[in-house]
Design a protein that fits this description.
Helix content: 25-40%
Radius of gyration: 18 Å
Number of helices: 7
Order of helices and strands: HEEHEHEHEEHEEEHEHE
Largest sheet: 11 strands, mixed
Shape: globular
């Protein structure tokens, strides 16, 4: 009796999503002079020193089963302090409420939240992508549409897959896909306001997952805002819990 492949557990999906997220930070850092991403003392720390990356990409992720939180936070604060980076966020998963409480006691405050989401690519929902109009665009145009012109000026284009979609004769939507050890990370998904609520982000995400499957990926992952989580759920992504982003007050 033949059986199909065993679906990955939520724990496996979550671990793979974290590894791909950290890899995406390293990839972006490779295009930003002076940037560094390190994993030590229970955290993955992305430090970007030049604008505009400095305003958006300075994040530290608390890793499951890491070192004592006090030592970890000292490492995070030292990493940013020595680079004179005052604005950064520490990501804490909802399964670590004690860590969130300790951060608040240390003077951190809530800034934003995202949801970890992932899926087996074979679970891709039947999303209609027939109306999706993709165009070739250089990175300057990609980052302009994202809303941060001049981002990561030295980024090698061969490290990821960049998608730009059109609607009404205009470039209106973006998505970056990055493969890491069989998982495809979906990032930088956005649609300009006049083209929203037309299913473009849903179709673009489904298209990216389908192409990742062709490349040999078995899973896909992303971090979604609360508002966008429903879009990804329609593609087949599963909710793996909420990250709080806490910032120094």
């Amino acid at each position: 009796m033949k059986t199909g492949p065993i679906a990955p557990s939520e724990a496996v999906l979550f671990d793979r999503s974290l590894a791909t997220l950290i890899r995406s930070w390293s990839y972006l850092a490779s295009g930003s002079p002076g940037a560094v991403v390190s994993e030590r003392s229970g955290a993955a720390i992305a430090a970007f020193v030049r604008p505009p990356e400095r305003e958006f990409l300075n994040n530290a992720l608390l890793l499951p089963g890491g070192a004592a939180l006090g030592a970890t936070l000292e490492t995070i604060e030292h990493t940013y302090g020595t680079r004179r980076i005052e604005r950064y966020a520490v990501w804490v998963h909802e399964t670590e409420p004690q860590a969130a409480a300790e951060l608040r006691a240390r003077g951190y405050r809530y800034d934003a939240a995202t949801r970890a989401m992932a899926m087996a690519v074979d679970d891709l929902a039947p999303v209609d992508t027939s109306g999706l109009e993709l165009v070739a665009a250089d990175q300057a145009e990609f980052w302009r549409l994202v809303g941060v012109p001049g981002m990561v000026p030295e980024l090698p284009a061969t490290g990821a897959h960049f998608y730009v979609a059109r609607h009404g004769g205009e470039n209106v939507a973006t998505l970056m896909a990055l493969d890491h050890e069989g998982d495809c990370g979906i990032y930088m998904v956005g649609t300009l306001p006049p083209a929203r609520r037309r299913g473009i982000a849903t179709a673009l995400s489904a298209h990216a997952v389908a192409e990742a499957r062709v490349r040999g990926c078995t899973t896909a992952s992303l971090q979604a805002t609360e508002m966008a989580a429903g879009v990804y759920a329609r593609v087949g992504f599963r909710d793996l819990g909420r990250f709080e982003e806490l910032v120094p007050d």
